[in-house]
Write a structure and sequence with these properties.
This is Integrase catalytic domain-containing protein. Helices cover 36% and strands 17% of the residues. It is of the alpha+beta class. It is extended and about 115 Å long.
C-alpha cells in the first residue's frame, strides 16, 4: 500500500499520530496493536475514509503474460525521472503504441540530487533507462525481450542494440550502453504528447515542498554583566556568609516554597541537609561561582564547579547556571581548546585497587628563577591521586628518591608504569624494583597514548599552571611556587571519571576540603578535642573506613566502564564559524616546535577588522596594533564588540608571551647595538639580564630579559653586544652559554 498510493505519508499522517498515542511506550508490534481498543475522532474518521478512497481509485497492477509484449516508457524532467512498465497481451500492428491495450505492471520514479542536477538532458533521459534495467531485471530479462520507448531521439542512436559501440559515445553513456548489452530490447521513439504517463510522473517532483524551520543556532549579543578578568582581586567583591544567604531566601523565596524547606537554628533553610539558594539571587550565586571556579581552584571547568557547589548548596537548574557562568569567564578562553574527545578504547592497563599501580612521567616546564626545570608526576591508577616532585634534571636518582618517598607514606605499588626514557629504564630503577619485589611496565615507543592516564594529568597540570600564571600575574618562570596549589587542585577536585569523588578521598578516605568552607562550615561541627577510643573501637572504625573505601572504588570502576562505552558512541562534529567585524577573538598560538609549555594556547584578544572569502579574517593586536590574516580554524570567540578595552585588559594581553621582534640596528656607525643598551646581574636567577627594545613598542616599554633567553633567540645580536661591552665577566658568562649549547 505504501508504494501504491500517491502522497501516502500525507494521507496517513493523522492515523499514524493516533497509533503512536495508542501504543505509547509499549511494544510496537502488530500483535500488540491488535489488542488495543482505538476510538477515532471525526478528523481521524475522515482521514480513514480518504485512505480507503485512494485505495479504491489506485491503479491496479497486473501480472505479465508470457506471450505478451512488454513495453517500457521512460522520461525525465529537470528534477526527476520516471519509468512506466506495461504489458500488451495482443499487439495490434496497425495501431500506434498509444492506442494499444496496456496493463500496468510497475511504476518507478526518483529525483536528481547533488551533482545529478548538473547533468545534461541526454544524461538525465538515459539515467531513467539504466535505472529501469538496474531495478527491474526480474521483468526485463525475458526470452522475447521488451520494447523501450523514449521521447529523446539522440538516445535512439546511442542505445540502439548493435554489434558495435558507437565511436561518439563517451563517459557515462558508454558505461550505460554496455550495461544495456545484457538485455534483449528494441528501442523506439515516441512523441512527447503520446508519452503522457511517464511525462506526468516525472513532473510530480516539481511541486514545491513545504519548508519548515525546526531549529537555528545563533550567537546573540546580550547585554549582561561581563565577568572581570580577576574577580577575586576586585575591591568590590564581598565574600558571602550565612546572613547573606538567609537574606536572599527571605527576599526571593515564596511562602509555599519556604514551607517545604527545613529551617535550622541559624535561620537558614535547607533541603536534604544542603543550603537552598533561590535561582533569582543572581548576585549571590555569581559570588559562589567565582569562589568555586577562580583563584586557587584553577578554572577546572563545569564538573568541578558542580561538585564543589552541589556538596553544600542546592541551586535549581545548577548545570545550566554554571554553563552560562563559564561562558562569561574570560580566562578560561585562553587555556580551554576545543572539546577533548578521549580515545574510544581508553588505556590498555586498568587497576581497580588503590596503590596497586603507579604511573609516573617527567614533564618539562621550562626554565625557572632557580634550577628547577622538570616535574616528576606520580599518579595512582585506581584513584587518580597524584604527587608532583620538582627537580632540576630527569635522572634515575630523582625517580628512585620519589618512589621511596611514596613507599614511606603509602606503601609500595606493585606495578610501575612509564615510558621507555633512560631515567626509568636503567640499572638503578631496575635494581630498586627487584629489591622491592615489583615489576615495571613500559609503554611502546612513540605510543604515549597507551600510558594515557599520566598524559591526561600532564595536560591538567599545564592547564592549571597557565591559568594561575594569568590569574596571579606571575612570570612563567615562577611556576615552582604554584606546584603545591596545582597538586591540591588535582587531588581535592571531584571529576566524573572517579564517579564524582575526589582523588584524595578515594586514596586516603578523608573528606575533601571545600573552597566554600569560609561560607558554610556545616550545622554539626566536630569538636576539636575527641575522647580517647579503645583498641576495639579503633579496629571497628578502621574496618568501616576500609569498607567505605572499597564501596567507593566499586562505584569508580562502574563509572569508568560506562564512560568508555559512551566515548565509543560519541559523535564528532565541526564548529561553525560565526564572527562579526568588531568582535574580539582569540588566536591559536603556533610557535616553534620547542615552545614554552606554560604559555597559553589561545592568545589575545584580537579585534576582528575584516572578513574575507574562504573563512579568513583580518584581526588586529590590541597592544602593538599589528594586523594579520588568520584562518577561522585558528580563531575562537572571546567577547562581543561591546567589550571595554581597559588598561587591565591591555596588561593581560601583554603578559601572554606575545611574539615581538627586536628593533633593527639604527645607524651603521654605532658600536653597541641600540636595541641592547645595558646589562645587569640578577642574584635570584644567577644570570645576566639585558635591556631590550622591541619593534613596534615605545622606548619606555623596554624590558629586562634574561641573557640566556635572548641568546637562544638572537644569538648574533647578543654576541655583538658582549663584544662591544668590554665586560670580562659578561664574556665568561657568554662562553659558558655557548659551551652548554654545543653540548646539547
Amino acid at each position: 500500500m505504501r508504494d501504491s498510493l500517491i502522497s501516502y505519508a500525507g494521507h496517513v499522517q493523522t492515523l499514524q499520530k493516533r497509533l503512536d498515542v495508542t501504543l505509547g511506550n509499549g511494544k510496537r508490534t502488530k500483535r500488540a496493536a491488535n489488542k488495543l481498543p482505538v476510538t477515532f475522532t471525526d478528523a481521524e474518521k475522515a482521514a480513514f475514509d480518504q485512505v480507503k478512497d485512494c485505495l479504491a481509485s489506485a491503479a491496479m497492477l497486473a501480472h505479465p503474460s508470457p506471450d505478451g509484449v512488454l513495453s517500457v516508457f521512460t522520461d525525465a524532467s529537470d528534477t526527476a525521472w520516471s519509468v512506466i512498465v506495461t504489458d500488451v497481451e495482443k499487439w495490434q500492428s496497425d495501431k500506434p503504441v498509444a492506442d494499444q491495450t496496456h496493463r500496468l505492471l510497475h511504476c518507478l520514479t526518483g529525483t536528481f540530487s547533488g551533482s545529478q542536477e548538473n547533468w545534461s538532458v541526454i544524461e538525465k533521459e538515459a539515467f531513467a533507462i539504466v535505472a529501469a534495467c538496474d531495478k527491474l531485471p526480474h521483468l526485463l530479462l525475458r526470452p522475447a525481450g521488451f520494447r523501450l520507448f523514449c521521447d529523446h531521439r539522440n538516445l535512439i542512436h546511442a542505445f540502439a542494440p548493435d554489434t558495435t559501440v558507437k565511436k561518439h559515445i563517451r563517459g557515462k553513456l558508454l558505461r550505460w550502453a554496455m550495461r544495456l548489452g545484457e538485455f534483449r530490447y528494441e528501442i523506439h521513439h515516441i512523441a512527447g504528447e503520446d508519452n503522457v504517463w511517464a511525462d506526468m510522473v516525472s513532473r510530480w517532483a516539481r511541486m514545491p515542498a513545504t519548508t519548515s524551520l525546526r531549529r537555528v543556532t545563533t550567537r546573540g549579543q546580550q547585554q549582561q554583566d561581563r565577568l572581570l578578568l580577576r574577580p577575586l582581586d576586585d575591591d568590590d567583591f564581598v565574600w558571602p556568609n550565612l546572613d547573606t544567604i538567609a537574606a536572599a531566601q527571605r527576599k526571593f523565596g515564596d511562602k509555599a516554597e519556604l514551607s517545604r524547606l527545613e529551617e535550622g537554628d541559624d535561620g537558614v533553610r535547607r533541603t536534604d541537609s544542603r543550603l537552598w539558594i533561590p535561582a533569582e539571587a543572581t548576585n549571590l550565586l555569581r559570588r559562589l561561582y567565582i569562589i568555586a571556579h577562580c583563584g586557587p581552584q584553577g578554572h577546572r571547568g563545569r564538573d568541578a564547579m558542580l561538585a564543589h557547589i552541589g556538596r553544600i548548596f542546592y541551586v535549581p537548574h545548577l548545570r545550566q547556571c554554571v554553563d552560562r557562568f563559564l561562558a562569561s569567564c574570560l580566562l578560561c578562553h585562553h587555556v580551554k581548546g576545543g572539546k577533548v574527545v578521549p580515545r574510544p578504547w581508553s588505556e590498555t592497563y586498568r587497576c581497580n585497587e588503590r596503590n596497586q599501580a603507579l604511573h609516573w612521567d617527567f614533564l618539562y616546564l621550562g626554565e625557572s628563577f632557580g634550577d628547577m626545570q622538570y616535574l616528576l608526576v606520580l599518579k595512582d591508577d585506581a584513584s587518580h591521586y597524584c604527587e608532583l616532585v620538582k627537580c632540576e634534571t630527569p635522572t634515575s636518582t630523582v625517580a628512585a628518591d620519589a618512589i621511596m618517598d611514596w613507599h614511606s607514606r603509602f606503601g609500595i605499588p606493585r606495578d610501575w608504569i612509564s615510558d621507555q626514557g633512560s631515567h626509568f629504564k636503567n640499572e638503578v630503577v631496575n635494581e630498586l624494583c627487584t629489591r622491592l619485589k615489583c615489576q615495571q611496565i613500559f609503554s611502546p615507543t612513540y605510543s604515549s597514548w597507551i600510558n594515557g592516564s599520566v598524559e591526561r594529568v600532564n595536560r591538567d597540570i599545564l592547564q592549571v599552571l597557565r591559568v594561575l600564571i594569568l590569574d596571579y600575574k606571575l612570570n612563567h618562570r615562577d611556576w615552582p611556587r604554584l606546584i603545591p596549589i596545582v597538586q591540591a587542585s588535582l587531588n581535592h577536585t571531584a571529576v566524573p571519571s572517579p564517579a564524582g569523588k575526589t582523588p584524595g578521598e578515594l586514596f586516603t578516605g578523608l573528606e575533601p576540603p571545600s573552597p566554600l568552607q569560609s561560607v558554610f562550615l556545616g550545622p554539626d561541627v566536630s569538636p576539636s578535642v575527641q575522647p580517647a577510643r579503645t583498641s576495639a573501637e579503633i579496629e571497628s572504625s578502621l574496618a568501616q573506613l576500609r569498607a567505605r573505601v572499597r564501596d567507593m572504588h566499586r562505584a569508580v570502576t562502574d563509572a569508568r566502564l560506562k564512560q568508555t562505552l559512551l566515548n565509543k558512541k560519541r559523535e564528532r562534529g565541526d564548529n561553525m564559524v560565526n564572527f562579526d567585524v568588531g568582535d574580539y577573538v582569540l588566536r591559536s598560538r603556533v610557535d616553534e616546535k620547542r615552545q614554552n609549555k606554560l604559555l597559553v594556547t589561545w592568545v589575545g584578544p584580537y579585534a576582528v577588522t575584516a572578513a574575507h572569502a574562504h573563512n579568513v579574517f583580518t584581526v588586529k593586536q590590541l597592544v602593538t596594533g599589528e594586523e594579520l590574516d588568520v584562518h577561522a580554524s585558528r580563531l575562537k570567540f572571546f567577547a562581543d564588540k561591546d567589550l571595554e578595552v581597559t588598561e587591565e585588559l591591555l596588561e593581560h594581553v601583554a603578559a601572554q608571551g606575545i611574539i615581538l621582534r627586536v628593533r633593527d640596528l639604527i645607524g651603521p656607525t654605532l658600536v653597541v647595538p641600540p636595541m641592547l643598551v645595558r646589562h645587569r646581574w640578577n642574584d635570584e636567577s644567577r644570570s645576566y639580564e639585558i635591556l631590550v627594545g622591541w619593534h613596534g613598542l615605545e622606548a619606555i616599554e623596554d624590558s629586562w630579559e634574561s641573557l640566556t633567553a635572548m641568546f637562544n633567540e638572537v644569538s648574533t645580536l647578543v654576541q655583538a653586544y658582549v663584544a662591544a661591552a668590554k665586560d670580562s665577566k659578561l664574556e665568561r658568562h657568554l662562553e659558558a652559554l655557548e659551551a652548554s649549547t654545543k653540548r646539547r
